[in-house]
Write a structure and sequence with these properties.
The protein is an alpha/beta fold. Helix content is 29%, strand content 19%.
Length: 466
């Protein structure tokens, strides 16, 4: 028996190595059809949970309306510069009142000091949250860079403000904590005179692509979260040109993952994994499962960038965030949850508390999240707070509400054992007519395995297929 197992293990390793070599050896052409043939590296699909960080000059004013407007995008503090350029009265009045009638957005550069930024503490927090990867905004739509970009002299975190290479410091700390590191990059800049319809050839060849290659060569991000793609097509932005280099020649060609924001026609169509944002694809509300690798991103509150005017009423509770993670993973996606540090480099305590609560839950129930896939034939029980994930022959039934009565799972022919993760309490069950009936054990505050959601593991589950 042991010999057979050893032979199977060796064969598996050989096949995986062979497949990896084939992927590595594959060369991609400069077109979407060829680029789509590259599989998304499995590490990203297995990680399930990541941390997004929006941090920049907009963290100085830290303002956007929270109750006075209805739309999602109208509450983004990181859009402060654009609102000033649009002469939005809420923002221009705030600017004049707090920074003077002749003040400008550029005045925030010396105020962005990041004097309390401690990358090791950030990385430790993200590790304890249970996240598998971290994505930092290298440059948002205001063009201000968190590294010494030669293409943005004077408008970066080494030449002004903190006087330090934020990306270098954080990437080292994040990787030192055992997490993957990625970068957000905006394809547009609101206030750059080169970013105009008549200059797109120069914009892409002299600024945008060289800047992205600089990021990849110097910091080796394993995720590139592109954004700001809505003004021009991917052809105008030369997106496939960059991605062909990224997949064929770059130092991260074998492990890098990219999203779908590479031109105004590309979301949910071209690129790597698909993205939703506060459950939106552009202006379209979407929920449920997307039949492609995908990821939901959102802030803990109403904004990505720090907004000092958000209150507890605007923040998701720990329970809501854990349920959100379960819902996205149960539908086959990842969750990229954003934190917005203040201009001093401090992550708000309420955000820290939320991340630690997620980490506490994942320490008990992580096997039902990490490395799982959606159950394609799952019964629709989300209205009852029930979600499902699969891993090998095991099925996980995740209950965001404690089942006070018998828990019924249709489509299960048999399971060798049923257990409640985090406890040795016996779980009674029986199957009949492709239906599993679970009798939840009696739990109370002294023996409950965790808060907020509970997972029943069905080991060696035989599932009904259609």
């Amino acid at each position: 028996m042991k010999t057979n197992v050893a032979i199977k293990m060796c064969l598996t390793v050989f096949l995986c190595t062979l497949l990896t070599r084939q992927v590595i050896a594959q060369k991609f052409d400069n077109n979407w059809t060829s680029l789509h043939s590259r599989p998304i590296p499995s590490w990203w699909s297995d990680a399930k949970f990541g941390i997004f960080i929006h941090w920049g000059l907009y963290s100085v004013p830290a303002y956007a309306p929270v109750d006075e407007v209805e739309g999602v995008y109208e509450k983004y503090a990181e859009h402060y510069l654009m609102r000033l350029m649009e002469k939005n009265s809420a923002f221009t009045d705030y600017q004049k009142r707090n920074y003077g009638p002749n003040s400008t957005y550029a005045d925030f550069a010396p105020m962005f000091k990041a004097e309390f930024f401690n990358p090791d503490k950030w990385a430790d927090l993200f590790k304890r949250s249970g996240a598998g990867y971290v994505v930092l905004t290298s440059k948002h739509h205001d063009g201000y860079c968190l590294w010494p970009s030669v293409h943005s002299k004077g408008w970066n975190s080494v030449d002004s403000g903190p006087k330090r290479d934020i990306i270098k410091d954080l990437s080292n700390a994040v990787r030192g904590a055992g997490l993957r590191f990625g970068l957000y990059y905006s394809l547009l800049e609101w206030n750059n005179s080169l970013y105009t319809s008549g200059n797109m050839e120069r914009w892409t060849t002299e600024h945008m692509i060289p800047q992205m290659k600089d990021l990849v060569n110097n910091y080796r991000p394993e995720i590139i979260f592109a954004d700001g793609e809505w003004d021009y097509t991917s052809d105008k932005l030369k997106s496939t040109t960059f991605l062909t280099w990224l997949y064929n020649e770059s130092p991260v060609k074998n492990t890098v993952v990219v999203n779908d924001r590479w031109g105004k026609e590309t979301r949910s169509k071209h690129g790597g994994y698909y993205t939703t944002e506060y459950n939106l694809i552009g202006d379209t509300l979407t929920t449920g499962r997307i039949l492609h690798p995908w990821e939901e991103s959102r802030g803990i509150g109403t904004s990505y960038g720090y907004n000092r005017f958000e209150t507890t009423a605007h923040y998701y509770s720990s329970k809501q965030l854990i349920d959100l993670l379960i819902e996205k993973v149960g539908n086959g996606g990842n969750l990229l949850l954003n934190v917005g540090p203040d201009a001093r480099g401090l992550i708000p305590v309420v955000m820290e508390e939320r991340l630690l609560a997620i980490g506490n839950w994942l320490r008990v129930n992580g096997e039902a999240i990490y490395g799982t896939t959606a159950w394609n034939e799952r019964p629709l029980q989300e209205e009852n707070g029930i979600y499902y994930t699969r891993k090998g022959n095991d099925l996980y039934v995740i209950c965001t509400k404690w089942p006070e009565k018998e828990l019924i799972v249709d489509g299960v022919r048999h399971a060798r054992t049923v257990t409640l993760l985090g406890t040795d309490l016996p779980v009674k069950c029986k199957t009949a007519k492709n239906r599993l009936r679970i009798h939840p054990p009696q739990i109370n505050p002294t023996n409950a395995p965790c808060e907020h959601a509970w997972v029943f593991k069905l080991t060696d589950a035989m599932l009904l297929t259609h």
